[in-house]
Amino acid sequence: MSYRTALDNDLRTLHVQIIKMGTLIEKSIDDTIQALINQDVEMAKQVIEGDDRFDDMERLIESNCVSVIARQQPVASDLRKITSILKIVTDLERIADHCSDVSKLTLHLAKEEYVKPLIDIPKMSKQVKEMLKLTIDCYIDLDVDKGKRICKEDDIVDNYYKSIREELEMIMKERPGTVRQCIDFLLIAKYLERMADHITNVAEWVIYSVEGERYDRTE
Amino acid sequence: MENYKFKVSDLDLYYGEFQALNKINMSIKSHQITAFIGPSGCGKSTFIKTLNRMNDLIPGVTINGEVLLDGEDIYASRQDIITLRKRVGMVFQKPNPFPMSIYDNITYGPRTHGVKQRSKLDEIVERSLRQAAIWDEVKDRLKKNALGLSGGQQQRLCIARALAVEPEVLLMDEPTSALDPISTMKIEELAGELKKDYTIIMVTHNMQQAGRISDNTAFFLNGEVIEFDETVNIFNHPKDERTENYITGRFG
């Protein structure tokens, strides 16, 4: 087997592993939100327990990357692909962590009636999920334009966070008895906002992998 | 201001009818290591030899264009070749010590250039062997035949021999391709040390070596320089697709 064939096989394996991990996390986000909306304790527990699988996947992908670097000494676009994967896998694992964080709060809130019907949080989480889906597509196609669009969409999630925070602040002022629950919802909104940041990072690494330079969102 | 040792403009070289180098333009910085990479037959060895006129010896060679060393054309008729080769030394792929003692190998050059005083020659021997990181290994057997040294030691001796005449530039044509990994590492470390005092230009088939030790890398293909840039750029993000294809092993 030539150097190039072995390297191509290794890269293909890594590529598939990242797509698989991303797709499973997309499902995890979905479950996280369903559990929160429906106060579904079982589903929330499943999300929390499922987090170990993502930790294992992260370790496997990391060690595969290190092996490829050690054995094949990739350069140029090959090297950029592998360094990007090493960064992307960390961001994906963080997103999975945040699913678990939200689900722990779902368990915390399971026996309480919510202070108000959930409106913006489901919308926000739908946006986050859409962004992740788009990011996986962007990774599969190495589509720089799509990557740049994802980076812009992060602002939508930031705006949701801002308005949810303002709303919760108002509720807390008016009904001090709800403070504990409102803090939980504030944390949930914050975790969702962080998920979008990690998704944006993934898109930025795809852009780097293709273009060889870090993308500056302010440009 | 950048300090360039060599400035090459529009250099063409023909072996008879065959054009081996095509419009080479390159400025090579002082006190840096510049590596030439490319597939066999791409012209990198031919090019490095034009820098101290080693191609003059080959029948049927025609050279057009300009090669400036510190601003002076080395192909000008007034250029003295002996002086040029004293300023621009060369180390070859296969270690080629003279079949004589280690001491005589080192002093051969200085003697040719008129150094006769014993104490001065002793001093040159020690300085050169120290610079080539081989002094400690051979200081007790300077009178022994150099052919008794290992391949890696022989190559460092050849580097010491090149340094003995105090050149300004050291050309190295695949200096480690006949050596084991430990000897290779020693030569690479040595090159890193030597660039403080010399300008080093190296042809290498070992891409990782170019990546490890050189400051600048030129990629040659079919007698042309396809891309010449800082090594970090060549290995992270080459601009030309042909460079990318070569260094990632997609062809060549």
TrEMBL record, chain A:
<keyword id="KW-0813">Transport</keyword>
<dbReference type="InterPro" id="IPR038078">
    <property type="entry name" value="PhoU-like_sf"/>
</dbReference>
<feature type="domain" description="PhoU">
    <location>
        <begin position="18"/>
        <end position="105"/>
    </location>
</feature>
<protein>
    <recommendedName>
        <fullName>Phosphate-specific transport system accessory protein PhoU</fullName>
    </recommendedName>
</protein>
<keyword id="KW-0592">Phosphate transport</keyword>
<dbReference type="Pfam" id="PF01895">
    <property type="entry name" value="PhoU"/>
</dbReference>
<dbReference type="InterPro" id="IPR026022">
    <property type="entry name" value="PhoU_dom"/>
</dbReference>
<comment type="similarity">
    <text>Belongs to the PhoU family.</text>
</comment>
<comment type="subunit">
    <text>Homodimer.</text>
</comment>
<dbReference type="InterPro" id="IPR028366">
    <property type="entry name" value="PhoU"/>
</dbReference>
<feature type="domain" description="PhoU">
    <location>
        <begin position="121"/>
        <end position="206"/>
    </location>
</feature>
<keyword id="KW-0963">Cytoplasm</keyword>
<comment type="function">
    <text>Plays a role in the regulation of phosphate uptake.</text>
</comment>
From TrEMBL, chain B:
<keyword id="KW-0813">Transport</keyword>
<keyword id="KW-0067">ATP-binding</keyword>
<feature type="domain" description="ABC transporter">
    <location>
        <begin position="6"/>
        <end position="247"/>
    </location>
</feature>
<keyword id="KW-0547">Nucleotide-binding</keyword>
<dbReference type="InterPro" id="IPR003439">
    <property type="entry name" value="ABC_transporter-like_ATP-bd"/>
</dbReference>
<dbReference type="InterPro" id="IPR005670">
    <property type="entry name" value="PstB-like"/>
</dbReference>
<protein>
    <submittedName>
        <fullName>Phosphate ABC transporter ATP-binding protein</fullName>
    </submittedName>
</protein>
<dbReference type="InterPro" id="IPR003593">
    <property type="entry name" value="AAA+_ATPase"/>
</dbReference>
<dbReference type="InterPro" id="IPR017871">
    <property type="entry name" value="ABC_transporter-like_CS"/>
</dbReference>
<dbReference type="Pfam" id="PF00005">
    <property type="entry name" value="ABC_tran"/>
</dbReference>
<dbReference type="GO" id="GO:0005524">
    <property type="term" value="F:ATP binding"/>
</dbReference>
<dbReference type="InterPro" id="IPR027417">
    <property type="entry name" value="P-loop_NTPase"/>
</dbReference>
